[in-house]
Every structure is written in structure tokens, then in C-alpha cells.
Design goal:
Elements lengths: L2 E9 L3 H10 L3 E5 L3 E6 L2 E9 L11 E5 L2 H10 L3 E8 L4 E7 L5 E7 L1
Parallel strand pairs: 1-4, 5-8
Antiparallel strand pairs: 1-5, 2-3, 3-4, 6-7, 7-8
């Protein structure tokens, strides 16, 4: 299993204003589902920030996302370790398979694989 990228997730009540702000820092919009926008550096597409409004399918907001090569293997490992799953392993309509887990500091981690 490998980690493909780690992205900070910024909870936002002003996604359009936030998108404009991160544009000033050099980020460009690479994905926009209305409630979630991903901004990436044009010369390094894995350097990203994600702006979240209320999540379309989860009741909690993640603090950051970790894209992995095998989300099922990671899910099995964290469940076996007794970690708290706060959003179940789900195939989402927008093309990811993901789950949320609470880390020992109380942070919510969105673990995902693109399908």
C-alpha cells in the first residue's frame, strides 16, 4: 500500500471567497462539486488544498485527506487496531471509495482511493 497524496481539508462557509484567496497564492481549481472544491499548484498537482462546505454524504468534516493505493487494506488495518470509524467505507457517486477515521488526537482523517 502506498500513499499518493495528503491534502489539508479546510472547512469553509465561504467557498467562493476561499477559492479566490487560494488563487492569489497560485492555486488553480481542479475539481468543483459545489460543496467541495480542490485547488492545486499548476506545476505540482499533488500540492493541494480542499475547501469543504457541508459534506454531501458524511455527518462530520474531515481535517485532512490521505489518498492511498488500497483503501480496503487501510480500512481493515485501522479496524483491526480498534480505531474509531466515524464514516463507513463507502463508494461515493463522485468516484472515490472512502472512510473517515478519528486519530488519537481527535482529528478526522478522510482515507480514500479514486475509482
Amino acid at each position: 500500500m502506498s500513499i499518493r497524496r495528503v491534502v489539508p481539508d479546510i472547512s469553509s462557509e465561504a467557498i467562493d471567497d476561499s477559492r479566490e484567496f487560494y488563487g492569489l497564492l497560485g492555486f488553480e481549481e481542479v475539481m468543483n462539486l459545489g460543496w467541495v472544491v480542490t485547488m492545486a499548484a499548476p506545476d505540482n498537482p499533488t500540492a493541494q488544498v480542499t475547501l469543504f462546505g457541508p459534506d454531501a454524504s458524511a455527518s462530520v468534516q474531515p481535517d485532512f485527506s490521505v489518498e492511498v493505493s488500497d483503501v480496503d487494506a487501510v480500512h481493515a488495518a485501522v479496524v483491526a487496531a480498534g480505531a474509531e470509524i466515524v464514516h463507513p467505507l463507502t463508494d461515493e457517486a463522485w468516484g472515490v471509495r472512502r472512510f473517515f477515521v478519528r486519530d488519537p488526537n481527535g482529528r478526522i482523517v478522510n482515507v480514500l482511493t479514486h475509482r
